[in-house]
Amino acid sequence: MYPCDLVLVNVGRNFDEERSNFIAPRKGIYSFNFHVVKVYNRQTIQVSLMHNGWPVISAFAGDQDVTREAASNGVLIQMEKGDRAYLKLERGNLMGGWKYSTFSGFLVFPM
Length: 111
Description:
111 residues; Jelly Rolls; three-stranded antiparallel sheet; 8 strands
């Protein structure tokens, strides 16, 4: 899991700040989005959105000769009450903590 160093909104307290996990409060369809920025030249980053320990989607920023490069992705996931979603940094380093890299999740449709 990649730690969040600042949580801007946590209505319902469904984001576990200690573990950097979103915990579904009820069964439903949830939307997740993330945006990440890499920091070093000639380095690839890979970030995956995990659902209960399994990768759902990933985003990559390549090894171009630039100091900053961004990657984003988003998905809808059907979750059960108590399911967890979080970001996992598979490869590379992110820039500036969560000032430049963001993660959000919310309930779209309860079931």
